[in-house]
Specification:
This protein is α/β, with parallel strands linked by helices. It is built from 19 helices and twelve strands.
Amino acid sequence: MNKILIIDDEEHLCWALEKGLRQEGYQVITSTRGKEGLELIQHETPSLVILDLKMPEMDGLEVLVKAKDLMPKLPVIMITAHGSIDTAIEAMKLGAIDYIAKPFDLDELKIVVKQALMVSRLREEVVFLRSELNKKHGRILGNSPAMQEVNTLVERVADSNATVLITGESGTGKEVTALSIHNLSYRREKPYVPINCAALPESLLESELFGHEKGAFTGAVGRKLGRFELADQGTLFLDEVTEMPLSMQVKLLRVLQERQFERVGGTESIKIDVRIIAATNRDPMDCVKQGTFREDLYYRLNVLPIHIPPLRQRSEDISLLTMHFLQKFNPSHDQMISPDAMGLLMNYEWPGNIRELQNVIERSIILSQGREIKVQHLPKEIQKVDNKKNGKAQGLILNFPDKGISFDEVERELILKALEKSKGNQTKAAQLLGLTRSALLYRAQKYQVKL
């Protein structure tokens, strides 16, 4: 049942509206004071508010602004006298959904209320459907447990205003993760503005972040808006934030604390509402210990940490990513990859992570001329992976004792070596042993090997 709150200092009008709206099946609560009405909004969470513009102590516009702070999506209908239509229009600019002028017919108000509730419900449905769509298509590719955990974190932190710090090696997908957070957040319709803090010298970085006024320095022929202003109401992505010079770190910290700044060469304080997402391919605590990154800035950024694991630790995702890039770079053909070539991709260490895999697939499609990608189409360093493995297999030497050997002990030792080689990655360990993952788990349990 929709709950309607009426805020009007005329008690008889409150009584008449309450009686009329209850007849329509609405639950109705009333208040004759703005402050009391705001408390009811906070505790009762109404579906809609009918608010008088002219009230003692706190007028309708002030109540409207505070109500929107409490519940940004709350639909508010303003009641106004004929002589204050301009004020009612001002209320619409501040977020009111509609207004009705005195004297009004009760049936007229009922129609306005019904329409406002319908519009509000439709907006909620659009937000929900868009959110579901973003969850489906905004997820970072990966079926491994590690990436499922990352996707769960992204969905949880998306609608928060708290700062996110994404860590991970180069090429793991930190910017894709940042963009996913933005696309899943309520800021999705507002700007997403990235900047690479390592790509610009200090003098240019300050101007890029905060903008500058005309004549601020040689070459400043006009006012320029910085990335913070451009990202207002949206998201600012600070890539490679640990590469920022210490002097700039102080200025960034001040903006994060005060949510305002001045352009270079300017004196006007500019307030902003920006969600900050930062990323680095280095261990930020190591940078703090080395004195290249401020500890207070680190803790200010590291409110919601997300770590993206390297590709070598989630080889389960390699085939999925490979298929994705095959479709991306050759969408008009059913691009194939031979089992031998896929085996090499699965066993390669990928020091450049997903970015390197993407480049390899694009290059291989060109070399294969749109046909099946085979081993010879892969880069030499990846082709060597199989040769190394074969060499090791051919050179395997066992010191077989005269008294014999326990086959179970040998098998247990091989499982431990494979797990050590794969750094605990069960799927890769199974591939090294020529087993399925389930077979590896069975044998590990049999020999009491901790996974």
